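Hey, resending since the last one bounced:
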Amino acid sequence: MSDRRLDAEGERRLREAGFVPEASPTGKQRWRDPQTGRMIPGANALKEAKRREERDLEEAGWKREEIEGEMFWRKPDSGRLYPRGAAHDLLLKSRERR
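The structure tokens again:
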């Protein structure tokens, strides 16, 4: 995977997932995985964070749907469709209200 820079949204998602930015011994930006403690490149960390978001959504009863080649998530109580990131943000907000 490339060592490309993450955009602001990618960095936000990583921080919300508990990943911590650190410089590797070679001086490159890496992200420490909160579950494994390993340092991994940003693109790999973002893929892992997205997998964890999808798992959270599935566990909360959200259903994945593909529409015209794009993936969306259906909210269990309203049936509305959201992209993964927005769906996960809604899930986190609903957990905060509890």
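The chain has one domain: 8-97.

Sorry for the duplicate.
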